Amino acid sequence: MNRRKFISLVGGAAAWPLAAHAQQAAMPVVGFLSARGRDESAHLAAAFRRGLAENGYSEGRNIAIEYRWADGQYDRLPALADELVRRPVTVLASGGGQPAALAAKAATATIPIVASFSADPMAAGLVTSLGRPDGNVTGVTNLSTALEPKRLELLREAVRSPATIAVLLNPTFPPATEQLKDIEAAARTIGQQVEVLRASTDAELAAAFETIALRRIPAVLVGSDPFFNVRRERLAELAAQAAVPAMYGFRDYVTAGGLMSYGIDLSDIYRQIGLYAGRILKGAKLSELPVLQPTKFEFAINLKTAKSLGLRLSDNLVSVADEVIE
Predict the structure, then answer these.
(1) 59 — phi, psi (to 5°)?
(2) Which residues contact 319 (CB under 8 A, 6 or more apart)?
(3) Residue 24 CB: number of other CB atoms within 10 A?
(4) pLDDT tens, position by position, 16-47
(5) Element (H, E) at 261
(6) What is the structure's pLDDT at 18?
(7) How far apart are CA 74 and CA 51, in angstroms?
(8) Residue 283: CA count within 13 A, CB half-sphere
(9) Peptide bond between residue 226 and the one before it cis (omega within 30 degrees of 0)
(10) Structural domains present in the chain
(11) What is the largest CA-CA distance in the chain?
(12) Cβ(80)–Cβ(33) under 8 Å?
């Protein structure tokens, strides 16, 4: 045999185990698309990773995770989703409710998507069945927008005033129309007048609270919305400046200085998304992963904020709270 050919063959054979090892070492990539912001959602991303870990997957060890954050700017989501699909990713997780879920679904009809839903995913066209998803989307609904009527009732009890209550909504949030319908129906049931204010920019947020202060509106219900979630500290600050009691969708607002919140444990939602993503990586079919709904809800009160507002909450209201910050 020609010596040059022999050396070439030997070299090629020696390279075979290395090539095989490189293929074995390749890790699946999980995409994480969020309508929210990186820093303010660090605890949610950590909960997502905990869910993956419960299936044996650890970032940097046997999976890679590609993160994309829209920072509450929904118009950025389609391009971010396309980036992840082109990467490509093995499974795509989406957080921040309907805006991210809709962008993910528009970007791919084949890559499995595990999403958080802030409203009915069937009504939004994201899934055709909750029990046996037959497309490429499943996930967890946090029922956040459906809880607006309960939040209105609790806020009314807190302020004990028949006067008009402001409702702050973001018109660019896909479920905003349904949010308003539910709130108005609840308001009619309990005989409560509401005034709707809309904001989808920082300037509009500030203007909304200026209106509340000028009109001496006694309370405001802040609609559940990732755009607002990203700005929860700013919203708590604006409410304090306007000296207005406010109700929010998640306890993160209360720990940031907001008065009250009623909703689900978001960290558990993201953990469940991680669990589902891990099961898909192990070979589970989406039809085996029904859309989940939460069964536990949290009512949180910040008594320090109530005191600063000069608001005396009833003993009954405080007693039913799951968490009280004093």
Answers:
(1) -60, 130
(2) none
(3) 7
(4) 444 444 444 579 999 999 999 999 999 999 99
(5) strand 260-263
(6) 43
(7) 26
(8) 0
(9) no
(10) 27-143+265-288 (3.40.50.2300), 145-263+298-325 (3.40.50.2300)
(11) 99
(12) yes
